[in-house]
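Task card 7
Instruction: Convert sequence to structure tokens.
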Amino acid sequence: MVALRRLGLKTAYAGRFGSDQEGMFGLKTLKDDDVNVDFAEIVEGARNQIAFITVDARSGERTIVWDRDERLAYKADEAPVEFGPLGRVLHLDAHDPRACVRLARAAREAGTIVSADIDNVYDGLSELLPLIDILIGSKEFPQRVTGITDERAGLVELRNRYGCALAGMTIGAAGAVVYCDGSFIESPGFEAPKGCRDTTGAGDAFRGGFLYGFLTGEDIETSLKLGNAVAAIKCSALGARTALPTRAELDEFLNSGPQIFTD
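Output:
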């Protein structure tokens, strides 16, 4: 949501924060970036979700260990269903899948497109996947769901089994590949300007850039390119949001003839 907001689109966030110092800080950072938080909740007495991230200084690759207070989870009947239809796209991370099902169903009934970023298989996920229009997961996700080791065959199976209009996966610094309208579209990643310092949040940044392209009328190939560009710029600084670009910064990067990532 911050990536899209910095690029100039209106965004809103629905989620729960703990009532501790970390929760107050997290909520404030969204407000500081002018993300609408009318549907954000403070859960009194709960600890905010927290992560410890180690970053390899040589490559920028990160390892995350995180913990989430169970009181922050949404039960199905607690889902803020009125939030789902408010925008042109509802983007979900698929935590609390049964609550997400209610949100996605309400969104689709109102004509809102549903997007999801999913890495793992959760209890109740099979109910959610048929409600997803744009499904871009991690490289490992298709196999985790379908059992198919061939990545592209896994994407085809996801599309056939659940009816997603677009099924895709990020492939790290190499970019992303999607299956749409019977064809594969692959988009290479870019080198981070001045080198990769931190990959934390790169996938989220990619999805922000991709959805920006989609929402501004670009074709799938261009949207993938924008996603890869936003992710590359993000990786140039420590932190998940520090270097997320404005539209002017994104244009400057693309006009500079950025280097395509190569192994």
